[in-house]
Amino acid sequence: MSHLSDTFGAMTTSIDSTPETCTHEIRSRGRTGVLACGNCGLLEFFSAGRTLDPDEGMAALFGDYDLVGTLPAVGAPGRKVLAYRPNRGGRSSLDLLPVAAWMRAGARLWIASDGALLLLATSDDLLVANLTQGA
Ligand SMILES: [Zn+2]
Asked: Which of 4, 55, 58, 89 has the greatest count of CB atoms below 10 A from its CB?
C-alpha cells in the first residue's frame, strides 16, 4: 500500500486551489451518467435524463466495489479515507472520474480516484462504520 499512500499524499484538495477553466462534461456508463470535475470538485449523477442523488449515483457506479482498507488521510478533506477496488468489469466506471482530485459526493463525503482505486474521504465516524460494515 505504500505506493498508494505516496500518490495520495501528492493529491490536492481542489477547493483550496485557484479555480481554472472548468470543462463540465457528462460521461456515461450504461444508463448512469456522471459529471465529475477535478477542477472545482463538482460531482453530479444522472440517469435517464434526471439527476440522481449522490447515494443513488454512487451505488449505481461503485456499489459493487470491494473495500480494501484505509489510507492515511494526508491531504484529504476528511479524517478517514477508505479505499475501494473495482471488481471485474468495474474498472470502466472508475475511468469516469478525473485522477487525483477530490470531488464532493455529499455533505460529509468526498470521493477521488488514484487511477486504480476509488477513495472515499469523510470525517463522519458513523458513515465510516456504515461503509465498512460487513467488509
Ligand atoms: Zn468544474
From this structure: 58
pLDDT tens digit sequence for 16-74: 555 568 989 999 999 999 999 999 999 999 998 899 999 899 999 999 999 999 998 98
Q: Is 76 helix (H, G, I), strand (E, B) or coil?
A: coil
CA distance readout (Å), 18 to 11, 14, 22, 41: 15, 8, 12, 12
Nearest to 127 by CA among 104, 112, 108: 108
Cα 105 to middle of ligand 1, angstroms: 14
Distance 134 CA to ligand 1 centre (A): 35
* DSSP state at residue 14: G
Q: How far from the centroid of its chain's Cα atoms is residue 113's Cα?
A: 6
Which run of H or E residues covers position 28? strand 26-29
Q: How far is the CA of 135 from the centre of ligand 1 (A)?
A: 33
